[in-house]
Amino acid sequence: MNLLAPVRRDRILAELPQCLRKEASLHTHKDFHPRVTCACQEHRTGTVGRFKISKVIVVGDLSVGKTCLINRFCKDTFDKNYKATIGVDFEMERFEVLGVPFSLQLWDTAGQERFKCIASTYYRGAQAIIIVFNLNDVTSLEHTKQWLADALKENDPSSVLLFLVGSKKDLSTPAQYALMEKDALKVAKEIKAEFWAVSSLTGENVREFFFRVAALNFEANVLAELEKSGARRIGDVVRINSDDSNLYLTASKKKPTCCH
Ligand SMILES: Nc1nc2c(ncn2[C@@H]2O[C@H](COP(=O)(O)OP(=O)(O)OP(=O)(O)O)[C@@H](O)[C@H]2O)c(=O)[nH]1
Ligand SMILES: [Mg+2]
After folding, report:
1. Ligand 1 pocket, residue 89 CB under 6 Å
2. Per-residue DSSP letters for 71-92?
3. Ligand 1 nearest atom to the CA of residue 199, by list position
4. Rounded CA gap, 82 and 95, in Å?
5. Pocket of ligand 1 contains residue 63 by CB under 6 Å
6. ipTM of this complex
7. Cα separation of 135 and 68, whole Å?
8. Is the shortest distance between the CB of 109 and ligand 1 below 6 Å?
């Protein structure tokens, strides 16, 4: 990958991509956080022009379609033959968000039990966890909580962004999908994840999903950077305002907003 080459034109985000379902989203704002937009406009993020990157791990049962999902987005390919991932694979995808270069490091992990212990050594330091299940296999949905628990052993649950992704949407009828979606939304709300349903075969929602992952990671990354630089400036922790559209903030965490 040539890091100096311009970002592909179809990887440029000027606006915040919207969630799929409001009731299971990380937040429901229409736009990027005002402090993020402002910092990017004024080139004040402290790291503007430098290389910003987020590590994302993709976990879930064997054969649910993790590799196909990544390949559909990164290479626009689809392979109908199953080739198990052995340990981990890795893809780097470059974006430009609000004029700032940003990359997602996508770690595609093995779902097979015998490769799991190799894969789990790569879980550490993730900014986002994508848990994939097959929309046509309820057992794979039931297993998502265990995948999450394992991934969280290596990460800070308070700062990591969670996505619950139902795959192989092309294989369900609308009625089957509606039933499964109900269960999946329940799980997503319980684990505080944003829910998506995709098909790597048809490409449905794949681009929208990864754009949302990139945007929310970028936003969190810049907010953390602003918080750090603010803290350095005044010698104290600066609170980034919490707000009401963040569905997954607990009542006790919610504070009156003051910054916008
Ligand atoms: N119809 C359909 N089949 C899919 C889709 N995504 C994946 N598959 C098929 O499901 C099988 C498994 O896909 P993979 O992406 O290799 O699954 P995986 O989760 O990476 O599996 P492990 O690497 O073993 O953990 C393959 O035969 C794919 O062709 C999809 O969206 N629709
Ligand atoms: Mg795989």
Report:
1. no
2. HHHHH-----S-----SEEEEE
3. 31
4. 29
5. yes
6. 0.99
7. 15
8. no
